[in-house]
Amino acid sequence: MSIFSPDTKIGFIKLFNSSSSSLFNSSKKVYDAVQQNSYLIMNIKYNSCPPRLAAHSTALINKKLYFIGGDDSITDDHNSFFYLDLNQYFDVQSLPYVVLNVTPVGILLASACVGGANNDTIFVFGGTNSVENPSQITDKLINTYNTASKEWSTPQIEGEPIRRRNIQAVIDAKGKMYIFGGFNSLEDYTTTYFKDMIIFDTITFTYSSGSTIDGPLSMSGYTATLLPNGIIMYIGGLAQNYTIISIKNIIMYDINENSWNYTTAKSPKDIEDRSYHSAVLTNDCIICYGGVERFYATVSPSLIVLNTTSFEWSFKEDIGTNAPPRLYLHSANLVENYMIIAFGNETSSITSSRIYILDIRNYTWISYYEASLPSPPPATDQPKPLLSVGAIIGITIEEYDNDRELKQEEFLLKYNETLDNSNTNIIYSKENENNETFEKENYRTFGKYRTYIIVIDFIKGKIQRYGD
User: To the nearest whole number, what is the mean pLDDT of the chain?
Assistant: First the structure.
């Protein structure tokens, strides 16, 4: 029996986790609201306990931080794909993750940039690809995800270079990606090291090459940071003989002059060299976090800062309530005043499932993210009410126990895209499972669950709960 009357116009999407999506252990679903008639239609958005990832890629578009691929130590899959919604406040214990379709191939140790004609496409370059079907083509260097159409594609591009991994790409304002070095290990255990500069135009889908004159020998596991003046600064990493490149040796490539240069930074003796660390750019500093030395022991101190004017290194003490462990093969992204560090390896056998946030204004680790408020709309003579009479909000929440028991469950997926003023009834009802708007799907999750729906009537001031 439906919990809503036939004239109730509330749409619910019952989310499932596909068994092939290698996704999350537990979830609490909340919803974005869009007004329709006198009601709010709720679109899927949810909080979730994420996987344990390392060697993933990230891309930031419109305050959505996308996580792509990586090694999921729980499922051993490499095709996770989800984003963290940065348009809202959250704390690190309740993260607004949104699950998307899995990547077309497993992606590991790749690099991602945002580009394209409309600057709305994620370009994932290189890495190692894995597939369930061996006949699937995996030799293509680039996979793309269009955030507008929500579609993955593997474009056919002439003149592609040899696949490589353990690289970091940067992209300029003209939509050109710059990728240096990396290596390629084959099944026969032979390894090819690269010392070329690949330039890929994300608008014309063409390759070109940068200069190698006076360029460095092959390196991997470094960080690459593009400064506003067009200089890419390469920090740390591994040389071809697996020695650590000193963080004092700053390698620079000028994208405007197509030339290489070097400088030596001043550094305290107690800052260790590193690879597989992360870096973000602030106004006049590059903030690096984590990393490992040659034999994969984590380095100290974890948080170091390079002044890009004086070329001096300094380090910061761990201040705050949410300082991360020493990590490597993690990710770092700068969003306004926050450096967001995600996942990564704590040791060779322990992978993190957590997010850590550094407030760069005072170098304090905090346990929450506070989104900037949008500009208020212009004043009008007749202000419109936020909700019309009879408005109702529905929230579906799933809670999971902590025993992490693996179980198979069957759920209904219901979706109706009607957003006009028609009288289409959108009713969540198991009796309607033969309706074509329903689909049955199996999904895998860890943990026992219970589901309930909360309905809030703002006019009558009532809150009702339905479910287990």
Answer: 75
